[in-house]
Amino acid sequence: xxxxxxxLIFCICIVIxxxxxxxxxxxxxxxxxxxxxxDPIGQPLINVCSIEIKRGYSxxxxxxxxxxxxxxxxxxxxYEQFIDQAKGDAKNAGTPYWMIIVKRNSRQAMIIIPxxxxxxxxxxxHCFNSPWAKIRFYxxxxxxxxxxxxxxxxxxxxxxxxxxxxxxxxx
Length: 171
Fold this sequence. Notes:
This protein has helices at residues 2-13, 20-27, 43-48, 78-93, 115-125, 152-155, 160-168, and strands spanning 49-55, 97-103, 110-114, 133-138, 144-151. The protein is an alpha+beta fold. It has one domain (2-168). Helix 4 links the parallel strand 1 (49-55) and strand 2 (97-103). The N and C termini lie far apart (36 Å).
């Protein structure tokens, strides 16, 4: 029953993944992120956050966020680049939050969300039964950024009604 519930939540909250360069340009729509709603039932999630999906990248880990390069001209680590892309997509899409789904080879799918989104979810769910990790890191010439990381399965435990409630309160 638990797996059926997760799949039901998945079907309600997560939408069909589009190959945006082909689908959106063919439809003449502006889209941001890798996931779009193809059915109205998935629209609340897209209203709440833009979603980036990353696959592979087995040589990279979240550790690069907290152990930056000592080389002054080093470009940001790959996860910082993912976050920058997701933040930019959220801003362009006009969504208050962003999410990155990461699936490294031979590993569980993970999600990264801003700590602000986690706090909003937690205020409505009141407690998560699954572990989440918080990483706060500093960026060159910027303030610190706090993110939350969990398995995708942990995120799928959030009732769809919570996402709808957040979506309904977006002005």
